[in-house]
Amino acid sequence: EHARLLGTWLETETEIGETPLPVRFAEQAAATPDAVALVAGDTSLTYAELDRRANRLAHLLLRRGAGPDRVVAVALPRSAELVVALLAVLKSGAAYLPLDPDHPAGRLTHVLGDARPALLLTTLSTDSRTPSGDSAERLVLDSPDVQALLAACPDTDPVEDGHAAPPAPEAAAYVIYTSGSTGRPKGVVVPHAPLLNFLEAMRRKVPLRTGERLLAVTTVAFDIAALELYHPLLSGATVVLAPKEAVPQPSAVLDLIARHGVTVVQGTPSLWQLLVAHEPEALRGLRILVGGEALPTPLAESMRTLTDDLTNLYGPTETTIWSTAADLAGGAGAPPIGRPIANTRTYVLGPGLELVAPGVVGELYIAGSGVARGYLHKPGLTAERFVADPYAPEPGARMYRTGDLVRWNPDGELEFVGRVDHQIKIRGFRIELGEIEEVLTDHTDIAQAAVVVREDQPGDTRLVAYVVADTSARDTGGAVEQDQLSEWQSLYDAVYDAAEQTAFGENFASWNSSYDGEPIPLPEMREWRDTTVDRIRALRPRRVLEIGVGTGLLLARLAPECEEYWGTDFSGTVIDELRRHVDADPVLAARVHLRTRPAHDFGDLPQGHFDTIVINSVAQYFPNAGYLEQVVHHALRALTPGGALFLGDLRNPRLLRTFASG
Fold first, then answer.
1. Which of these, 590, 640, 637, 644, lies nearest to 612 by C-alpha position?
2. How does the average pLDDT of the chain come out, rounded?
3. More confident residue, 581 or 468
4. 349 by DSSP, 3-state: which?
């Protein structure tokens, strides 16, 4: 059985040729000069017009240092100029780095800093949205100066007129930044040979006829966009470039399909779910390509009723866009991801890189002509993911470890099962859940985080994060703790300043109910105080430290019976008032010691001295559980051997729901 499967891998071998993409496009433009190549908004360009505009920009790029294996970043709006620029970079022999100007500034900054492009192409509208910290020379294409330079450039093909050599098969065509297990975006370098192999495979698998129109909906920052742009342009067909604001709106997408006579659409399952739910009849008869994430069976069944030309595609960026394809029309049940495309080998392997039997789940490895060069400036990561291919017919070949779990079905097609890591795809975005969890746990109040994918409504896939509060001890000198302590201190100073004068040990100011905000009745407060005093007396205290002594509710009754009574509080106002009462009583003045300080500050307090330490009805105001742990740690060091630590009025969070429902 393994030998039979190996035979199917080798059957995908196809003669491709070495004519690179920009030369093939020039040949197509010469063959169909008057055919419409591109429709973008109100702009329509024929093949000849698109070729000439790309030639002019290519000459300008060459004059600015573009060339083989140099990177040119492209940060342009979804317009005709975007397609012109991509073709121009390829014609110059350089590799393009596509950027979406609407992506977060932090991502753009990282990508530009990591890729270190020689040039950055922008427009007046996108230049301000592109980070300015990069060192690349900027060309603002619609500025008067650059427009004047372009007008002076020849519109002849730079390869034909000898200003540039045809790109070598191993030369980089583009660099696409994708997410992954490293925790940061990384650039995948795709040479011309893998790109050409992919386009030839698509020409055979999904041939486009002259006059057909393909709607391009994918952001150029994703490699999937390459199929939408180059597959039609090498076939004499037309690219209809959807504006960015139309893609999230099903009605706008369907309007573009109808208005421009679109015959082919590639999209993610998330997009197709929106379109099918909105107006399925508007899709009837379309040639449909779907990929970028797992295709749900119910959606596949719905799409099968709308077309007899339905192709499910699969592939990571590292093996050049798509690596397998499955014809779903006329089928039923769970959709497979199919068989390898031209010159591609797919292996389902076990932990020891052994071939597993059909029907057995293993990890998918991809080899052959589509394998990319690796990750830009990351040889270690490249070696980790692009490993030696032990089953290759030629020595030195590599295969890419996808991290996807698959199995061969009885029809000899691959079925997607899941991931071996924490990575998923949603709406075509390749997302590492661990990255999101890492960002969440960077927050000082979050100890643990788990991010999962949920689909509470069919077709509505969302990320949901579950977090656990951080209860670990943190530096009490930190800004958060200091802010909270300062807020409580200011509050209590104000409360005690405004409190009415009462007998010593009878000041219950600020003892309000958490339920209705009203003062707790005095009989209840006195019962609480007397009960607490009785519990502490039962410990037979002689040398006492009370943290959070307050107005002396406990001190007034316990201190006369003790040898020493130390009290601390962070409110200077309350300590001053308490000291006034103590100094007026000679018995208390001789044995009571008062300090103004926060609970965690034991400063000059004697160590190993106290037989009883009281932390009563104050812990609920500490900044966090870690702060309480630190106070308890210091208190235990201040206790004499055999001493007692009295913790009173600790709240039980399990009662919060009951409390709130009353």
1. 644
2. 88
3. 581
4. strand
Q: Which amino acid is at 182?
A: T
Element housing 1 (H / E): none
| Cα 315 to Cα 367: distance, rounded to the nearest angstrom | 12
What stretch of H or E contains 191?
strand 186-191
Which pLDDT score, from 0 to 100, does residue 500 have? 63
CA 20 – CA 474 distance, rounded (Å)? 59
Residues 6 or more apart in contact with residue 341 via CB below 8 angstroms: 12, 198, 201, 202, 205, 322, 323, 324, 325, 370
Per DSSP, the three-state class of 167 is coil
Q: pLDDT at position 327, please? A: 95
Phi/psi for 408 (5° steps) reads -80, 130
Look at residues 257, 226, 222, 225 and name the one whose alpha carbon lies nearest to residue 240.
Answer: 257
Q: What is the residue type of 487?
A: E
Question: pLDDT tens, 633-653?
Answer: 999 999 998 899 999 988 877
Residue 258 CA to residue 283 CA, distance in Å, equals 9
Most confident of 489-498, 552-561, 613-622: 552-561
Calpha distance 63→125 (Å, rounded): 24
Helices (H), ranges, 186-311: 192-205, 225-233, 250-259, 269-278, 297-304
Task: Give the global pTM.
Answer: 0.66
Whole-angstrom distance, CA of residue 167 vs CA of residue 172:
8
The tokens describing 652, both together, are 């039980």
Helix (H) or strand (E) holding 85: helix 80-92
Residue 408: CB partners within 8 Å, gap ≥ 6? 5, 348, 358, 359, 414, 415
Please give the average per-residue pLDDT across 311-319, as a whole number.
Answer: 97
H helices of 237-278, in order, are 250-259, 269-278
Asked if 329 and 355 count as a contact pair (C-beta separation under 8 A), the reply is no
Question: How far is it between the farthest Cα atoms of the chain?
Answer: 111
Helix (H, G, I), strand (E, B) or coil at 541: coil
Pairing of strands 213-216, 264-267: parallel
Encoding tokens for residue 637?
A: 């060091």
Dist CA 652 CA 662 (whole Å): 16
Q: Which residues of 458-470 are buried (b: 16+ CB within 10 A; e: fewer)?
A: ebebeeeeebeeb
Enclosing H/E stretch for 189: strand 186-191
Q: How far is CA 593 from the centre of its chain?
A: 56
202 φψ region: left (φ > 0), alpha (ψ -120 to 50), beta (else): alpha
Each residue's pLDDT tens digit, 189-228: 999 999 999 999 999 999 999 899 999 999 999 999 999 9
pLDDT in tens, 16-28: 878 999 999 999 9
Whole-angstrom Cα distance, residue 261 to residue 303? 19
